[in-house]
Amino acid sequence: MEKPQAGTVIDGFTLTEKLKTGGMATVWRASHPDETAPLVLKIPFFHPGDDVSAILGYEAEALIHRRLSGPHVPRFVAAGDLARTPYIAMEFVAGTSLAETMRRAPLPAAEIARIGEAIAVALADLHRQGVVHLDLKPENVMMVGNRAVLLDFGLAHHAELPDLLGAESTMPMGTAAYIAPEQVLGDRSDPASDLFALGCLLYQMACGEEPFGRPQTVAGMKRRLYHQPKPLRAVNPEAPAWLEEIVRRCLEVDRGRRYADASKLAFDLRHPEQVTVARRRRDKPHGLWQRLVALFQKRDEQEITGAPTQARRKAGPSIILTAVDLSEGEEPLAGAILAETSRLLAAREDSWLACITVLRTEIIGETRTVDDEGRSLYIKRLVALKDWARPLHLPEERVSYHVIEAVSAADAILRHAERNDIDHIVVGARSSSAVRRHLGSVSTKVVAEALCSVSVVRLKTGELD
Amino acid sequence: MRIAVLSDIHANREALEAVLETVGQLRPDRLVLLGDIVGYGPDPGFAVDMAIRLVAAGALCILGNHDEAAVHGPIGMTPHAREAALWTRAQLSPEQRGFLAALPFSVTIDDTLFVHASARTPADWPYVTDAHAAGQCLAASEASLTVCGHTHIPALFYARPGREPVKFTPRRNLAAPLSALRRHVLVVGAVGQPRDGDPAACFALLDTDLAEVTMVRVPYDMQATARKIAAAGLPEWLGMRLLIGR
Question: Taking Cα atoms as reference points, which of A74, A150, A143 lies closest to residue A102?
Answer without folding.
Answer: A143
